[in-house]
Amino acid sequence: MYPTSSSSRPRDLLVWQHAATHLRAGQPVTLLCVLSSHGSSPGRQGFKMSVAPDGTAGSIGGGIMEHKFVDLAWAKQREADSAVVLRPQIHRREAPTDRSGMICSGEQVVLLFPLKPTDLPAVEACQRALTEFSASSFRLSDAGLQVVPAPGQASAFQYREGSDWSYEERLGFRDQVTIVGGGHVALALSRVLATLDFELTVLDDRPGLNTLEENPYAHHKRTVPYDTLAREVASGPNQFIVIMTFGYRPDEVALRQLLSHEVKYLGLMGSKAKIKELMASMRAAGYSEAQLARVHAPIGLPIQSRTPEEIAISVAAELIRVRNSA
């Protein structure tokens, strides 16, 4: 089931749509892409733009650096210059070469890649992969733009430097969030996460639950018994799990099912009193302190949140902190 909310789209979908539209119209299009980034760079690895004569889509980080590359793309389009440009950008005033004009102290490598009419099928394949959630990657090199299958554990980004450079990026969302429990807080959290580049699944065991059925932000929604969650929920280094069911007992059933999952984040919503009692029950059932220490509970940053919307902000902030940690 796919979302109706435009904010739930993969961030790069507009870039590929923009490029495809202009290639079909026979107009020149240039792809700008950040191939690597270190330190305080305005654009992180994977940021990209489509530049056409009448406008742009996406961003490589903004500021004077982006402005320069857009101007360069337009100049090369006017001159019908199809040469690829790979350019380091150093964001320090004292750098002897490759100064970007910014002073935020980081570094990045930016690719300027003029797309050819023959690249249209690959651009359209990128577009389809993003809308259909297929496991694909795109690859850029001097050989052109290619779309290739992506194994389940493929890295999000792969950049090889040098004269035989290549860049490969997994299409779609790098990180996936599964919310167990489809109530009002899940709906509010879905609304926030839809803006944060997470692929979002919401599960509940109550058939016909209105807050699940009417959730326009989730990419996937399913009604499943909580005692089957071990096989329903994926594990992996880019998986985040948030448990927020309607009560103590379903919370414990869900936690027992998912505690052994190797994931980036496992969180449980509840008051301190409820969490204390639930953890005591888990210890009595034989779960170790090491296992229970993996659980973020109570969930969210401590900002005295009370409403579903405030709780959603606190949980989303915690997910961002975990995602961006080393």
TrEMBL record:
Residue ranges of domain XdhC- CoxI in the record: 23-79
Residues of the XdhC Rossmann domain: 178-319
One Pfam match: XdhC_C
Superkingdom of the organism of origin: Bacteria
Gene3D superfamilies, alphabetized: NAD(P)-binding Rossmann-like Domain
InterPro entries (alphabetical): MoCofactor_Util/Proc (IPR052698), XdhC_CoxI (IPR003777), XdhC_Rossmann_dom (IPR027051)
PANTHER family from the UniProt entry: ALDEHYDE OXIDOREDUCTASE MOLYBDENUM COFACTOR ASSEMBLY PROTEIN, XANTHINE DEHYDROGENASE SUBUNIT A-RELATED
Protein known as: XdhC/CoxI family protein
Native source organism of the sequence: Hymenobacter persicinus
Source taxonomy: Bacteria, Pseudomonadati, Bacteroidota, Cytophagia, Cytophagales
